[in-house]
Structures are given as structure tokens and as C-alpha cells.
């Protein structure tokens, strides 16, 4: 199998710690890193040691005119995603852009159109869609194992402080733009990316636990006709939530983290059928009682054996390889990433935060 050549822009947590980590692994059967780009001289020096076979450059502009690149990975600061990706597309490169794709759906759309015009591929690194836990939840919903799912809660929560660039509105930071592409992507996924999916309600806050001016608390409810209500929360103020996603079905509940799940439901066939009693309830002694019983339930637990960071990254790169070489359809498209940005853009519009930087 012929490997494709990659230029990797950005040597931070993402470029080094996610993309670089995967691209160095033996399980990467598809891509060779030919160029590594970072604006920081210090990170260029580190990259020289990390990638002895690659050419190390200081700017994405230094890639222009190079004919031996099949894919450029844009893992720059978030506010650079649109301008750097635009430049790369204009110069004829296929691009894999980190999330968030952009600040507005409109600017994402302009790049999707530009890529079509230039005849190049445009991908967005929304690797969570390839994570086993997300696929498992889609299966549970489809199979109706806990009945028809009526409510979905997604919580990317923790208690903590931040003071890095990811706290700044001007750099496209904050929980909604930074973490949000994953849970809002799931939310739209659970709504089947329905045309009418919309933000029904949202709230954002910037609190003293965030040094910058963007949101460290974001909660929104997304709805679509005949679909469950999906509530997404990305909070740095929550010390006590023990799940990432919870589904409530008409027969029971599932909760999971990216690592594992548990579920419990009531099989109707194993429980005595009930009809409503229209007078009071009493025990054998004639005392008033609350309406309760010992139900027969089914419980199950399991683990997923991988997350968005390992399996998700591998599967997304594999999908890109097969898309470039065989035309295989992408499971996650730039169009989907644009929809996700549209949700985040709407939530910001509904909750204007004071710009301080
Ligand atoms: N998909 C995911 O799960 C995931 C996880 C982490 C970060 N990210 C995204 O990756 C991007 C980078 O985040 P990070 O945590 O790696 O940041 P970081 O601060 O750790 O590193 C960013 C690096 O990119 C370099 N850089 C920035 N803009 C550049 C430019 N225009 N040209 C050349 N070099 C440039 C910087 O010098 C720095 O070395 C962000 O958009 C972030 O949202 C995605």
C-alpha cells in the first residue's frame, strides 16, 4: 500500500500530541510525515528531533509550490483555521483542518465552495464521531434496547481553572468553540443532522475560574421534529457529574463515559402488567402507601476498549486515506462540521459575552 505524504502544521497538544502521536505509530499504515511546520523556533527545534526524516518549516506559506504533499494537517490556533486553510486550498492542497472548523457557518461554507472550485479535498478533524462510545450509543438508540429514547444529556464537565489562549473569544476559545465541536457534533448526530435541528434554548457564562473572556459554562438544548430533546453542557464548574452521555428511553436508562457504560431497563414481559388505580392505595393493614414495587430489571455493563483519541484518530485517518485513494465516502464531512459551527455560533449570538481582550 502506497503511503500518502503529509505536511503537519502546528506542534502543540494537537499537532504533536494527537496527530503526531498517531502518525508515528506502527498502526499508521497510510501516511508519511514529509514536512512539519510551526511558527515557534523552539518547537521547530523539538520537531527536528521528533521528525528527523521531515523538513521543518516556520510558516505554511513555505509549503506553496511543493508537489510532494497529499494532505496538509492544519493544527494551528483555532482563529487561524479559516485563513490558513483558505490559503492552503487556494494553493491546491488537500486539507485536514482541526476543529473548530471556523467561527461562523458562513465562513466554513466559503471554504467548502472554494475546495470544490479548486478540486481539492477538505476534511475537518472531528474524530469523536469515530469513537466507539458514540457508535455504540447510535446502536442502542436504533435497536430500542431501552425503548424509544426521549431525552439525551451530554456533559463534558469538570471543576477547574484555565488561563491559556483557549479562554479567549478573539482566538476562538471558550468551552463552546473548543470542546463544543465534540458534544454538539454528537447532539446533531443523535438528531440525525435533521434539516430542522436547532438550538431551542441556551445559556453561557464567563466566571472567575476563566482568565479570558470566553465561556467556561455553556448549556444548550437542541431539538428537531420527532426526535429526543438533547441537552449539552460543557461546564468547568461541575465537580460531581459522573457520566459523559446519558440516554433515557421509554423503558430505562444508559449512562456512559468514553471508556465504558452501564444500562438498566424494565422488560415489560418479566413484570406483572399494571393498569391505573383510580382510588387510594393501601397496604394489608389498611395504611396509605406510596405507589412502588420491586421491579424485575435487566442491567448490563461494558467497556469500549478505545476512545476518540486513539481509535477515533486512526479511523478518521483511515477514512481520509480511503477517500483520497478509492473515493470512499467520509463518515464525517466538512458540511457536518459547518453545521456544528452553526450551532456554536447561534449559542454565542444568544449569549453575547463581553469582549475584554
Ligand atoms: N480534535 C481534538 O480533540 C483536539 C484536541 C486538542 C486541540 N485541538 C485543536 O487543535 C488546535 C491547536 O490546539 P493545541 O492545543 O495543539 O494548541 P497549542 O497551543 O498546544 O499549540 C499550537 C501550536 O501551533 C503553532 N501555531 C499556531 N498557529 C500557527 C500558524 N498560523 N502557523 C504555524 N504555527 C502555528 C504554535 O506555535 C503552537 O506550537 C486548536 O484549534 C484546538 O482546538 C483539537
What report would you give on this structure?
The protein has 357 residues and is an alpha/beta fold. It folds into two domains: 4-127 and 310-324, Rossmann fold; 130-308 and 340-350, Dihydrodipicolinate Reductase, domain 2. 30% of the residues lie in helices and 22% in strands. It has helices spanning 15-24, 41-50, 81-90, 105-118, 132-143, 175-178, 181-190, 308-326, 334-350, and strands at residues 4-9, 31-37, 55-57, 71-74, 95-98, 122-125, 149-155, 198-205, 217-223, 229-235, 245-249, 252-256, 260-265, 298-303. It has an eight-stranded mixed beta sheet with strand order 8-9-10-7-11-12-13-14, covered by helices on one side. Strands 3-2-1-4-5-6 form a six-stranded parallel beta sheet, with helices on both faces. Helix 2 links the parallel strand 2 and strand 3. Helix 3 (81-90) packs parallel to helix 4 (105-118), helix 4 (105-118) packs antiparallel against helix 9 (334-350) and helix 7 (181-190) packs across helix 9. The radius of gyration is 23 Å and the shape is elongated. The N and C termini lie far apart (49 Å).
Shape: elongated
Mean pLDDT: 98
Task: Please tell me the total number of domains.
Answer: 2
Low-confidence stretches: none
Name the CATH superfamily assignment of the largest domain. Answer: Dihydrodipicolinate Reductase, domain 2
- Count of DSSP strands: 14
For the largest sheet, list the strands in their spatial order: 8-9-10-7-11-12-13-14
Separation, N- and C-terminal Cα atoms: 49 Å
Helix content: 25-40%
